[in-house]
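User: Here's a chain of 151 residues. Predict its fold as tokens.
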Amino acid sequence: MARLQLQAAITTWEHSLKTTCGAIVPGKTVWWLVSFQWSGANWTYAGIQDSPGELQVKDNSNVRKTIKRLEPHQAYETLGVYLSPDGNLSAQFEKMLGAVTTRVDNLQTGRLPKEEILASSPINYFAYPGLPASSAMVDQGSVRGNCVTSS
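Assistant: Prediction complete.
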């Protein structure tokens, strides 16, 4: 019953978007069913196997497609942020750590243009674990060409 109501809401949303020349793109859309089950001691999120169901929309060619469904613990990136219904931030932390690691590596090896090195100079990377203290701060005087020189 609830899944049928949810499908009706998605279909109404789809029609509203098409009226304004928009569309739901099935390949860029995911959904979660937030449902709970009692395990005898506490409430847990019900997974796809425990609460099966699917939602469908018509693509730009008017062909009905199934929207990808994720488990409540699975995060999805939207507008640059990973979100999941259960609130876990693991995927977001991994993304941020990867970005910081890449940036620090680029600063240490001089693979950034001078302008980007200077733009990064006020940032104290010393708080990043494993980063040598000698590269914790970069000042304008240590920038020569496109490389960072140690002082």
